[in-house]
Structures are given as structure tokens and as C-alpha cells.
């Protein structure tokens, strides 16, 4: 068996890489395939928190690199999603504790026993980025509809090409359709026109993400969350399903608003 | 130590770029200030030719050589030496004056002897190409990227980055793009930037060139 290794990256920090990694990983695992997430953000460990696995960490990525423990031994199983595992980052070390070669070796080893190996890349374009992309065959670039994030995504796409990862997928995160409608925010086409790569998903700005992150429950487990649904669609597209883009987001807005109005009217 | 923020000043004039050095400082301070200034500019002066002037006291000739090596490391060249009367006459003329400055990176991508570089992809943020000749980009030039040519620049796509045509001082160089919306345009020794605020996308291909010493943009027409 040989799974695919996907790196989730963005260049700019704070656009939702870790949330996207956790959500896509959880959504894929819920659909059946086995998934392992690797937190490559050494020294700024977050992915375990978002998944609610902080208390279960015994070994970490740097232990595996140092040869202190086998990669499979260091994995943590998710408490609710049985197909989902995590290789956490070390919190007490920094990015220099890992080399691109060692990351590639770990990714290669894990892909022999998992369908998807998803790597959460740290922000920036330095060592941490080079480590995270070393073992990857495919990349997901996360951006928000802001010029600064789009500019950094553009830079990252160029750097991915340089690393031999062509045709990355794009996720536009935290879009607000009400602001787009008023022309206060870049819309999906603006971003696509600039970056010209394949769109994997558009994630609406959603408070449920904040709640889910704080509770350590992947947002894709929340049936009602719009962002959760969008991430489930993303996972389905990664698996090759042809899911239409939620251009319906606006209609849905209007529709749910009426339903909510009725619900309120009924008391 | 005295703190002076403007030990090294670049002044753009009609006749070109003037570099004014403060002669009072030590050569180490002067070099450091010059390096810092050039680093801050982030390649802005790349390919420029400057005339060096000094203010204050006598500048020893060996200082000028040091300054030249710093400038050349950053892709600038010294046009001529216009020194204070104090050091004036006895200077030997600059053997390199007037020579076009070779633009370093990117030359390897082109066959020797060819004078046009073809780039068959888009340039993304952070990528830059410079070439001693013309450059044709079959793709977009995104914001945050740079194209620098001693000759013309043609972009068969959207030009949103920085374009510098006629980098060696060639005033008849042109920049042509299917959509000309650059962050900044430079032709020979002139600089123009896009207006602040919302920029309307041009409807068709446009051409930028120098007319009476100013950069003008006109819709592209064949003659």
C-alpha cells in the first residue's frame, strides 16, 4: 500500500493551516481512509490541541528523527475518529532539530501503512517550510481573501514549484459572502485570477471553528457548521469525488435565513 | 559615535543618479552606511549608473575604489567622478565609465549570444529575472516579482510586478504587456508607479515608453 503525502502550507501565518489540516484529516478519516497527520511546526505545537489530543502525547516527531522511537510507536490515535492518527511536534525543540531528509524518510515510512499522510507546515519560507515539503507529493495552499495572504500564497506556490511540487490545490479560507457582496472583500475569482491554480474549496468564515478549536473537536464533526460542511466537501474532492463548489453559499444563506425566520415566528 | 542617518544620499536628477558621500566619516563607516542604504533599497538601484560626489573634506582616492567595489557588488556602476575641488584634477579617469553594467542572475538561462530571454511561465511573488537584453514573459508577472532588462520587456499576460526596461540607461526601451498594471515601472533612469487606490484594469494591451523624459502609457498599436 502506498498512500499519498499532502502538505498543507500558506506562507503567511494565521490563515488557518492547522485548522485546515485537522479538518481535512478528520473529514477524510470519517469517510473511511486511514489518515495520519504530521505536525511539522516544531516549537509551536498546535495540531494536538486542535484535535483535543494534547494530554496523550508521549513521543514526538523529533524523538522519531533522533531515532529514540519508531514512527509508528510515536503516533497517537484520535479518541473519536478511529482512522485518524497524529504524529505531534516537539514543543521544546526548534526547526533545526529536523532535516528535509529525515522528514522525507518519516513520510515515506508512514505512507506504506496509511492512505493519507497530511503534513501541517509552519508559517514562513525558511527551514521549517523546506522540512515540511520534503516528503510531500501534493500540496494544499491555504489563503484568506486578503491581499497580503494572497501575495504570500503566490510566493509559496513559486517555492513549491521549485521543490518539484507542481499544481498545488488552493483553499480560500474565512470568506465572508456578505462582505464580498458589498465589494469589501476579494471574491473567489479575484484570488483565482491572481494565483491561477486549481480550487479545492472555499471555506466560509464561521464561529463554529473557534468553538471547535477551543474544545478540541474537529469542526467537521459538527453537522450544522458551514465551515465543517465545506471541509467535508474538500475531503471528498481530495478523494476524487466531483462535488460542486458551494456557489450555493449565498442561496443557502437566504434559504437558511427564511427557515430561521419561520422557526423564530413559531416560537 | 555620532549618529547620522544620512551619511549616504542618493539624489535622482535629470542627468541621472547622484551619490553624495560624506567625506568626514571613516571609510568603514561610509561602507557600512552605503551597504545599509543599498540593502534597504532591496535592489532598487540595481543596474543604475551613479555619479559619485563628496561633501566636506578631502576624500582619498582609495576610498573611491572601496565605494566602487561596494556599488558593483550591488549591481551599480560609477558613471564618472565628479569630486570636490579639493581632490579634483589629479584623479585618473575611470576606465569603466560608460560601460554598460552586465545584469547578473538569469543569464545562465539563456544561450550565449542570444539577446532575448524567453520565460515560458508566470513569475510569482519573490521571483525575479534580470537579463542583459530583452525579456519576453509568456505568462503573468505577479505583484512582488521583478523583471529587469537592459532592453525591452514584453509580457504576454498580466504585468502586476515591477518592470525595469532599459536598465543600462537605454532611453528608447519599452515595456509592453497584454494587461499593463505594474506596481512600478522603470525605463532607463525614470520611475513611475501606479496610482494609489483602486486601479481599473486596462481593456487591452498597452505600451510604456519615455516621451520627453517622462514615462507615458498608451494603448498598443502596430505601426
Task: Explain what this protein looks like in three dimensions.
- The complex is a heterodimer of chains A (267) and B (223).
- Chain A has 267 residues and is α/β, with parallel strands linked by helices.
- An 8-stranded mixed sheet of chain A has the order 3-4-2-5-1-6-7-8, sandwiched between helices.
- Helix content of chain A is 44%, strand content 16%.
- The model of chain A has no long low-confidence stretch (mean pLDDT 92).
- By secondary structure, chain B is mainly beta.
- Chain B contains 2 helices and 15 strands.
- In chain B, a hairpin with a 2-residue loop joins strand 1 and strand 2.
- The longest helix of chain B is centred in the N-terminal third of the chain and has 15 residues, at 27-41.
- The N and C termini of chain B lie far apart (62 Å).
- The A-B interface holds A 125, 151-152, 154-155, 157-159, 161, 194, 196 and B 122-127, 140, 142-144.
Radius of gyration of chain B: 19 Å
Count the helices of chain B. How many?
2
Class from secondary-structure proportions of chain A: alpha/beta
Question: Largest sheet of chain A, order of strands side by side?
Answer: 3-4-2-5-1-6-7-8
How far apart are the first and last residues' alpha carbons of chain A, in Å?
Answer: 55 Å
Secondary-structure element pattern of chain B, one letter each = EEHEHEEEEEEEEEEEE
Uncertain segments of chain B are 1-5, 81-114
Shape of chain B: elongated
Largest sheet of chain A: 8 strands, mixed
What is the radius of gyration of chain A? 18 Å
Helix fraction of chain B?
10-25%
Number of helices of chain A: 12
Structural class of chain B: mainly beta
What portion of residues of chain A belong to β-strands? Answer: 15-25%
Amino acid at each position: 500500500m502506498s498512500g499519498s503525502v499532502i502538505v498543507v502550507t500558506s506562507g503567511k501565518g494565521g490563515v488557518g493551516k492547522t485548522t485546515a489540516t485537522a479538518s481535512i484529516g478528520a473529514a477524510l478519516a470519517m469517510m473511511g481512509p486511514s489518515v495520519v497527520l504530521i505536525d511539522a511546526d516544531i516549537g509551536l505545537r498546535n495540531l494536538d490541541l486542535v484535535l483535543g489530543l494534547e494530554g496523550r502525547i508521549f513521543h514526538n516527531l523529533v524523538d522519531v528523527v533522533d531515532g529514540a522511537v519508531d514512527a509508528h510507536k510515536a503516533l497517537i490515535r484520535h479518541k473519536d475518529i478511529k482512522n485518524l492518527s497524529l504524529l505531534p511536534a516537539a514543543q521544546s525543540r526548534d526547526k533545526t532539530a529536523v532535516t528535509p531528509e529525515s522528514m522525507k524518510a518519516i513520510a515515506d515510512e508512514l505512507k506504506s501503512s496509511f492512505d493519507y499522510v497530511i503534513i501541517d507546515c509552519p508559517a514562513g519560507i525558511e527551514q521549517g517550510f523546506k522540512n515540511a515539503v520534503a516528503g510531500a507529493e501534493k500540496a494544499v495552499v491555504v489563503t484568506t481573501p486578503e491581499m497580503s495572504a494572497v501575495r504570500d500564497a503566490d510566493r509559496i506556490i513559486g517555492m513549491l514549484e521549485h521543490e518539484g511540487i507542481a499544481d498545488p490545490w488552493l483553499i480560500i479560507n474565512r470568506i465572508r459572502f456578505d462582505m464580498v457582496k458589498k465589494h469589501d472583500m476579494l471574491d473567489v475569482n479575484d484570488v483565482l485570477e491572481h494565483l491561477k491554480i486549481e480550487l479545492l474549496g472555499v471555506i466560509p468564515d464561521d464561529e463554529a471553528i473557534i468553538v471547535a478549536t477551543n474544545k478540541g473537536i474537529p469542526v467537521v464533526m459538527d453537522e450544522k457548521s458551514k465551515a465543517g460542511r465545506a471541509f467535508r466537501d474538500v475531503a471528498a474532492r481530495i478523494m476524487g469525488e466531483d462535488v460542486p463548489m458551494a456557489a450555493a453559499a449565498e442561496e443557502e444563506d437566504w434559504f437558511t435565513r427564511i427557515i430561521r425566520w419561520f422557526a423564530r415566528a413559531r416560537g | 559615535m555620532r549618529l547620522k542617518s544620512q551619511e549616504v544620499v542618493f539624489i535622482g536628477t535629470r542627468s541621472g543618479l547622484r551619490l553624495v558621500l560624506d567625506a568626514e566619516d571613516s571609510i568603514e563607516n561610509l561602507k557600512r552606511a552605503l551597504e545599509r542604504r543599498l540593502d534597504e533599497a532591496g535592489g532598487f538601484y540595481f543596474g543604475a549608473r551613479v555619479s559619485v560626489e563628496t561633501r566636506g573634506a578631502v576624500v582619498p582616492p582609495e576610498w573611491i575604489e572601496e565605494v566602487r567595489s561596494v556599488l558593483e557588488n550591488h549591481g551599480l556602476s560609477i558613471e564618472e567622478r565628479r569630486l570636490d575641488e579639493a581632490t579634483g584634477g589629479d584623479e585618473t579617469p575611470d576606465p569603466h565609465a560608460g560601460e554598460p553594467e552586465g545584469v547578473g542572475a538569469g543569464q545562465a538561462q539563456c544561450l550565449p549570444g542570444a539577446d532575448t530571454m524567453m520565460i515560458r511561465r508566470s513569475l510569482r511573488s519573490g521571483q525575479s529575472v534580470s537579463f542583459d537584453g530583452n525579456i519576453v514573459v509568456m505568462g503573468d508577472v505577479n505583484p512582488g516579482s521583478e523583471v529587469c532588462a537592459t532592453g525591452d520587456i514584453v509580457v504576454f499576460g498580466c504585468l502586476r510586478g515591477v518592470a525595469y526596461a532599459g536598465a543600462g540607461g537605454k532611453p528608447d526601451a519599452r515595456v509592453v504587456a497584454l494587461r499593463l498594471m505594474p506596481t512600478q515601472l522603470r525605463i532607463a533612469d525614470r520611475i513611475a508607479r501606479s496610482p494609489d487606490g483602486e486601479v481599473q484594469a486596462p481593456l487591452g494591451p498597452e505600451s510604456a515608453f519615455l516621451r520627453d523624459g517622462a514615462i507615458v502609457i498608451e494603448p498598443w498599436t502596430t505601426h
